[in-house]
Amino acid sequence: MTNVIETSPSVEYEVVGNGQTVYESPDPVEGVAQWLETPEDVMAFVARDDVSDVIVIVRGGTTTFLTMALNAGIRGVVTLQGAPESHLGILCREYGIPAVMSVSFSKGVRTERGEVVPANGVRLRLDVSTRPSGTVSATTDAPVDDSEVVSAGPGMSPEQLAQIMTLLEKFGGVVPHGSEGDAIMQAEMSTKVLYVDDDEDLRRDLTREEVNEAIRYYTWNEWDALAARATEGESGLIPRQEYEATGIASCWFTHPTWLRAIEDRVGIDGMIEIGRVGRREIGSKINMLHLWAIACAPSFGRGIALELGLHDLDFRADRIRDTFGIVRRIYKGLWESGPILTSMKEYKAEVLDRDWIDRFEADKVSLADEESRQAFQRYNGAAELMAFLLHFDNRLGVSDHGPYPLPDGGFVLVRDAFLNEPAWSWNNPDSPLPWSVTTALFFPAGTPLDVQVVDISTVFTTPANYLPYVSDVAVYTRPTWDAPMDTITKLDFEGMRKLRADCETESAALYGRIAAMSKREKVEAGALTYSAGFVISVARASGMYDELVRDYGLTKIHPVIAASYDTIVSGVASEMIPRLFLTGSWGNPVPESARDEIAAGDVPVFAVLHALAVRGFATAEQVADSSGVSLAEVQAILSAEVEASHATLARDVLYALTGTGRGKYLLLGEVSIDGETRERVSVEYERFLAPNAVFKQLASDWQTGKPADAVDRLSDVHSTALDILGGLTAIDGRFDRYSVRLTGAADRFRGGDESALTKPMSESYHDIWMELHEDLLATTGRERNEADG
């Protein structure tokens, strides 16, 4: 039976969709529908004169896609995916924009993908008077497309949906959210690894039992904070899951090295002192979220690497133990004592020294009049949105902490928003925005709010919309990340209006820059906000930032993961990341058999992958010739690599590495070829460049005119090549195979086989020479340039 809502003699509504209310509002929300699918749609939409009567409908539950629309003052938001806990839900709450998420429509027209949505221009009404459920109604005369939808693939079965709902409600289907879940997880632990009371205890290495208990607790803790966000869906602007997989995996291969280098430089007491910065300073990225991230990310990244088959469970696993020990010392500085996670503190995060709270109270301004409240709320939303966009739609740009109790029974919540990060190439170097803005929100005694601050520095309240309860605020800007606390500036309402305008201008320009990026540029930029962004504040505080950029690749994606890009973006990330979030299966324990060196069984695997890498594509027989591994073993290895999606097989003959196959190869090479070997091979490579130029000229001359002196010229090149290969063979015996193969090709050419010089894909001298050249580049880790020929 159709549910018809009559609003006037001429307008009737019927419920056409049900979803989840972001925050409660007693009044119905009416406006006209507008479907937005691409960044270009958004930019064209906000170019209209007035969008205040528009309820936008979007696919995903991400924030940044709608940046410009939120700033433009739309009437409401409806999404097909996502949850109120998503970033878009949070920002709608901050702006005071009513929203209903994960709506399933029963009537409407079709999008290009076949989804059902109300037609553009249809009058809508949102009922957001209750949580968790909200409804979307449309006028009864709205267009309806009843045509059959061509399925894009198998949908989710009721059983699968029920399983996901169970995983959202309880970790592993067993452990609940909140303090009840914390009690269960702590009861499983026999160590105090997540406490920092004992100063001397922090100066030793952790046991495997301790780090494994920490990993187990963090899998629940991350689920507790992020499970709902794992279902937020796709963004029309930023490929979130692809960059998350890339960035987090890169953390596993980089953070242990970076953090060990930092602690070796500043010492244990220096790491503790770095943590104390988060207590002494506002506008600091040495905060709960960044410490939580560097505690979690290496383990999560290791889980991704295992999923991709880049290595086995034992490989370098003890680096997790070392890394968590270092992070624990930074936590000591942040908290001084007690447990290190807010989930263990009843979700209270009193981070700042108390004199800051006293200062906020002395500087606060009232929101008693509506004009002041509106000025604050618009500034607050614009600043948060700018911070989210600059940090590619993740929480690293915003940090909530508190509640801090007040003597009168009220409390304060504090939020840092980071608006101008010079480390990011997409940031405007001439931006007028400060490094950060800090907002202290005052709530009077008796405020009917239940407040929780989770470890990702995000506040959640019940009721969800806390803004009507804010009585006073104090707002401060910090010009740069290292600006002393006596240089911060307190903002009045006019200052808030100015900052809001600057944020809106800068975010609109940034939106355009991001929209113009290629997909790979977006993925790599977002990944850097994780891999470099998690550690960047510690690097700066240690004084090692420039050194880590120059010598350790701080602002680059690790080569193993960069090589795996095509695999990660092929659909792997969009399936893997939500699953790992929901199940906690990223949290693999550190085994007693952990090792740093290559496994014995991987020696022939590396030889086979190396042959494929330098040849590009090859038959099993060719791989055997190049690698020196028996044909039978080559065939077995290649079959296993194809099964693991590390190699492809074309026409049942030719093998080639996939993205993750090349990543695995680079990782095995990193372990198999030491620095001294690379340096010695580099010396011989420099000798190789001269005969390389001579041979290239010979090959070119032969292909255009077959000069009469070709045999003599080849003999000269070959003599020099054998001398160089003698030096290379003394370093690594496998190079002798090139001597044998090149000599065979040279002999065939001297014997009258003209194809033996340059004919492609025939084991000609040119084929083998090119393979040798690629081998030298791969072994030395060099990228080909003009000097390499």
N→C terminal distance: 75 Å
Rounded to the nearest angstrom, the radius of gyration is 30 Å
Shape: globular
Strand content: 5-15%
Total domain modules:
5
What is the tally of helical segments? 26
Helix fraction, binned, reads 40-55%
Mean pLDDT figure: 93
Uncertain runs with pLDDT below 50, 5 residues or more?
1-7, 152-156
How many strands in all? 22
Spatial strand order of the main sheet: 2-6-5-4-3-9-10
Query: Largest sheet, if any?
Result: 7 strands, mixed, barrel
Structural class: alpha+beta
Any descriptors?
789 residues; 5 domains; globular; Glucose Oxidase, domain 1; disordered N terminus; seven-stranded mixed barrel; alpha+beta; six-stranded antiparallel β-sheet
Q: How do the strands and helices of this protein lay out in sequence?
A:
Elements: E1 4-8, E2 11-21, E3 29-35, H1 39-46, E4 54-58, H2 67-72, E5 76-79, H3 87-95, E6 99-105, E7 109-110, E8 116-117, E9 123-127, E10 133-139, H4 158-169, E11 170-171, E12 175-176, H5 178-187, H6 208-226, H7 240-280, H8 288-307, H9 318-335, H10 354-363, E13 365-366, H11 370-390, E14 398-405, E15 411-418, E16 436-443, E17 450-454, E18 458-462, E19 472-478, E20 489-491, H12 493-515, H13 519-531, H14 536-542, H15 545-552, H16 559-563, H17 565-583, H18 602-615, H19 620-627, H20 631-643, E21 647-650, E22 654-657, H21 659-672, H22 675-705, H23 710-731, H24 736-750, H25 755-758, H26 765-780
Parallel strand pairs: 3-4, 4-5, 5-6
Antiparallel strand pairs: 1-2, 2-6, 2-10, 3-9, 7-8, 9-10, 11-12, 13-19, 14-15, 15-16, 16-19, 17-18, 19-20, 21-22
Helix pairs in contact: 3-11, 5-6, 7-8, 7-9, 7-13, 7-14, 7-17, 8-9, 11-12, 18-19, 18-21, 18-26, 19-20, 22-23, 22-26, 23-24, 24-26
